[in-house]
Design brief:
Elements lengths: L1 H21 L7 H8 L1 E2 L7 E2 L7 H10 L5 E6 L5 H14 L5 E5 L2 H18 L1 H4 L16 E4 L2 E7 L13 E5 L14 H7 L8 E6 L8 H8 L3 E6 L6 E3 L5 E2 L4 E3 L6 E3 H5 L3 E5 L7 E6 L9 H18 L3 H9 L17 H7 L13 E8 L3 E9 L5 E10 L5 H11 L2 E3 L5 E3 L2 E5 L5 H13 L4 E6 L9 E12 L5 E12 L1 H12 L9 E2 L10 H7 L2 E8 L2 E8 L6 H16 L3 H29 L5
Parallel strand pairs: 3-8, 3-15, 4-6, 4-7, 7-8, 9-15, 16-21, 18-25, 21-22, 22-24
Antiparallel strand pairs: 1-2, 5-6, 9-10, 9-14, 11-12, 12-13, 16-17, 17-18, 19-20, 23-24, 26-27
Helix pairs in contact: 2-4, 3-4, 10-11, 12-16, 15-17, 16-17
């Protein structure tokens, strides 16, 4: 009987253990898991047992991550709001409660190692349920390394956005990406690291993509784009006086009283009263249920006082005013307000594309009266030439004549012959006088440099004024026509070796100086010296996209290698070929060194010739009709 009791006991114990192992886990959210298990390490803002009630805005973000209806979660925030804690709580949840394959991507592999050694390893060490899941790195046959930690039901890989090897191969369900605005544009030569990481989760029906970052420059910010494509939720507070819900806004801050003014009742309310009022997340696009996106700034943080925020702003603004250094102000906008920095043109009286397009005028002929000289500019793209013919008069008054494209394979002669034919075009005034292109500037950059060199040399041997040009890439300001340099023309031999067969000269352009002049002239409102004319005629190529391209860059003040300077910066998504073409035409005009008095006399002679010819023709017609002459 004793033996039977022992067998029965072991059988019952086995059944109980099996039942416990097979029993479905209680359904809990990430915030509930965090309240139950999470411990914040020494050095944290609130070390010790974690409580979501202490930082209420974190709860909704955590729970959105584990929501089965949500795929993407984006947090665009300032620093000092606890976004790393949100990530760690989520990682712990997907290790212990809902075991899954995970990857944590940081801007560089070295930052990934630092995160793993300090934050991740410390969390595993401090939380018992995680220690039970992951073997210590020093144990025998351990699958726990700095960048790879395995547990029952999954593993977590820590990687860097600059390391293509760490972003490839293994399938991943949960993809964490921190500081995505600091990611490189490409992981080596493999392409966008965000896309590479997310591709790892393609086969999972319940995949998760979590991106967090402080933003950088508006229009160039990954996290801003992600935020705008989601629900766009703001952490809002209810006004203690009128009940109006509103986000924390630095623009409503009253410095003297260290308070925030209500946008509805305009009452100045103290920091303490605001932070003790009810809060909730309010979405601008609640219908975008699969992508929850959140924005936070330091004003909502329980660890940052508003007085400190005001002081930081004052110091940054003083540096801007005193030294024209915007870097500290930019950092304030990004890391304190959690907003992207707006790169705006600083020039007074800047024009926009609507103003320029509205200024366009109808030309009575191909060339309007006033033009004395024609130049052409060619921008070489991978599959086409972008071309603009521009007219010039004394004191840089200029007219856009035609903007067009020639498409083709630039490695074949046919498209170059078509370009040559186009540049031979004769253009006419209303009275019949004619002008041809006097000089052409062609861009030698891009993927067809040697081919451009060969064509420039070929045209020069035919006596044509064709100038190969290249933009200057140095740091100091230089004039538009900077200097001339000799370049080699190469050809491949039968065995594939490149040999030098000829040479030609190209001009190095100070394109920033040219853009300065063009920008200033575009502001001139009255025809005459420096005025820029544009045709309204259909088919000339001067559509709305042209004007957007002409204004595709703005000049901003920035720090380059510790030196404050003004630099031209391309706007996001804009194509700048029209601006480049205008600049190359300007260079062609300068290189031709026109003597305006001689050109005026020549055209005047042409007018007299045309008048005499017309008079003679009228006499002939009258004679043929039997009239007295």
């Amino acid at each position: 009987m004793g033996k039977n009791k022992e067998v029965a006991f072991h059988t019952l114990y086995f059944i109980c253990s099996l039942t416990k192992a097979l029993r479905p886990k209680e359904s809990i959210s990430i915030s509930q898991w965090a309240d139950k298990h999470m411990i914040l390490p020494e050095g944290s803002n609130e070390a010790g047992k974690f409580r979501t009630g202490n930082v209420p805005y974190q709860k909704e973000i955590m729970d959105a991550i584990a929501d089965p209806h949500v795929v993407d979660v984006t947090v665009m925030s300032s620093s000092q709001v606890g976004k790393t804690t949100i990530i760690l709580c989520g990682i712990g949840y997907y290790i212990e409660h809902e075991p899954s394959t995970q990857i944590m991507v940081l801007p560089t592999l070295s930052l990934g190692e630092k995160f793993s050694k300090t934050r991740l390893a410390q969390m595993i060490r401090d939380i018992q349920v995680l220690r039970d899941k992951i073997a210590p790195a020093k144990s025998k046959d351990s699958d726990n390394t700095i960048l790879f930690k395995q547990y029952a039901g999954g593993y977590i890989v820590v990687s860097g956005a600059n390391s293509p090897a760490s972003l490839s191969s293994m399938p991943i369900r949960v993809v964490w990406m921190d500081e995505v605005d600091r990611f490189p544009d490409s992981a080596g030569s493999e392409g966008d690291p965000v896309t590479l990481a997310e591709t790892r989760s393609t086969t999972f029906w319940n995949k998760k993509h979590i991106k967090t970052s402080t933003p950088t420059i508006a229009g160039h910010s990954r996290i801003e784009d992600e935020y705008k494509s989601g629900t766009m939720e703001e952490w809002c507070v209810q006004c203690p006086c009128c009940g109006k819900w509103q986000p924390y806004s630095f623009r409503q801050m009253v410095f003297d009283t260290v308070s925030m003014k209500c946008i509805e009742c305009m009452e100045e309310i103290s920091e303490r009263d605001w932070k003790e009022s009810p809060h909730m997340w309010i979405a601008q696009h609640p219908e975008r249920k699969r992508h929850r996106s959140f924005h936070l700034n330091q004003m909502a943080s329980p660890w940052v006082e508003w007085r400190d925020i005001i002081d930081k702003f004052k110091k940054a603004y003083e540096k801007k005013e005193k030294y024209h250094d915007l870097e500290q102000l930019k950092a304030f906008i990004n890391t304190v307000l959690g907003e992207p920095w707006e790169e705006t043109a600083l020039e007074e009286g800047a024009v926009d594309e609507e103003i320029l397009e509205g200024r366009a005028e109808h030309y009575a002929a191909e060339i309007p009266d006033g033009v004395l000289l024609l130049t052409a500019a060619v921008d070489v793209q991978d599959n086409r030439f972008e071309i603009e013919v521009r007219g010039w008069a004394r004191d840089y008054e200029t007219w856009g004549i035609y903007k067009t494209e020639i498409y083709g394979d630039l490695e074949k002669n046919e498209v170059w012959e078509e370009l040559e034919e186009y540049l031979k075009t004769t253009f006419r005034f209303e009275d019949g006088r004619e002008l041809n292109v006097a000089g052409t500037a062609i861009d030698t950059g891009g993927n067809h440099t040697n081919r451009v060199y060969k064509w420039v040399r070929y045209m020069q041997k035919k006596g044509k004024r064709v100038y190969g040009v290249k933009g200057y890439t140095g740091s100091e300001e230089v004039p538009l026509i900077y200097h001339q340099t000799k370049v080699d023309i190469k050809e491949k031999t039968k065995n594939g070796k490149e040999v030098v067969v000829d040479s030609t000269s190209i001009r190095i352009l100070g394109v920033s100086s040219g853009k300065d002049d063009i920008s200033n002239r575009l502001k001139i409102e009255d025809p005459g010296e420096g005025y820029c004319h544009f045709p309204s005629n259909q088919g000339r190529g001067y559509d709305h996209e042209y004007y957007k391209g002409l204004l595709s860059e703005s000049k901003v003040t920035k720090k380059v290698r510790g030196v404050i300077k003004r630099a031209w910066v391309k706007k996001s998504g804009a194509r700048n070929e029209p601006l480049d073409l205008f600049n190359y035409n300007y260079a062609a005009c300068e290189l031709l060194r026109p003597v305006w008095g001689e050109l005026e006399a020549k055209l005047e002679k042409g007018i007299n010739y045309m008048k005499a010819t017309k008079k003679a023709r009228r006499k002939v017609r009258k004679s043929q009709n039997g009239l007295e002459v």
